[in-house]
Amino acid sequence: MTNQDFSTNSNGIPPKTWLVESILVTIFCCQILGIISIIYSAGVESKFYRGDIVGAESSSRTAKTLVIVSAAFGVLTVIAVAIMAALGVFAGFYNS
User: Fold this and answer.
1) Mean pLDDT of 23-49
2) pLDDT for 40-68, tens place per residue?
3) In the Cβ-directed half-sphere of 92, how many Cα atoms lie within 13 Å?
4) Residue with more model confidence, 6 or 12
5) Which of helix, strand or coil describes residue 8?
6) Residue 67, class by beta-carbon neighbours within 10 Å (0-12 exposed, 13-18 middle, 19+ buried)?
7) When comparing pLDDT for 94 and 10, which is higher?
8) Direct distance between the N- and C-terminal alpha carbons of the chain, in angstroms, rounded to an integer
9) Confidence of residue 74 (pLDDT cuts 50, 70, 90)
């Protein structure tokens, strides 16, 4: 999409809020980024209905980015913990 597509949203449908995804990543992945994402998500519809369509699109894109980064951080954390646990198990076998 181009910037013109965002500014000419006259169909009356607000952009995706990402609120559910923001809440899920707050619970399961990264609380800081999830809380910030919830704040941006909550502002999408209010900006849209005030007539600030560009601001609503911007908040939606920011919330989406934060959700993706938070989910990626959560996945990387799980992988890192699994690697450390595996190394700990192997170290235990090696020392025995």
Assistant:
1) 95
2) 999 999 999 999 999 999 999 999 999 99
3) 6
4) 12
5) coil
6) buried
7) 94
8) 60
9) very high
Residues 1 and 82: their CA atoms lie apart, in Å, by: 39
Hey, how many other C-beta atoms are within 10 angstroms of the C-beta on 65? 14
Among residues 20, 18, 24, 21, the alpha carbon closest in space to that of 40 is found at 18
| CB burial string 24-63: b at 16+ within 10 A, e below | ebbeebbeebbebbbebbebbbebbeeeebeebbbbbbbb
The structure tokens listed for 23 are 């809440």
In this prediction, residue 6 carries a pLDDT of 47
Whole-number pLDDT of residue 4: 46
**Cα–chain center distance at 64:** 5
- Answer yes or no: are the C-beta atoms of 15 and 60 closer than 8 Å: yes
- Residue 35 sits at the vertex; the CA angle it makes with 66 and 74, to the nearest 5 degrees, is 55
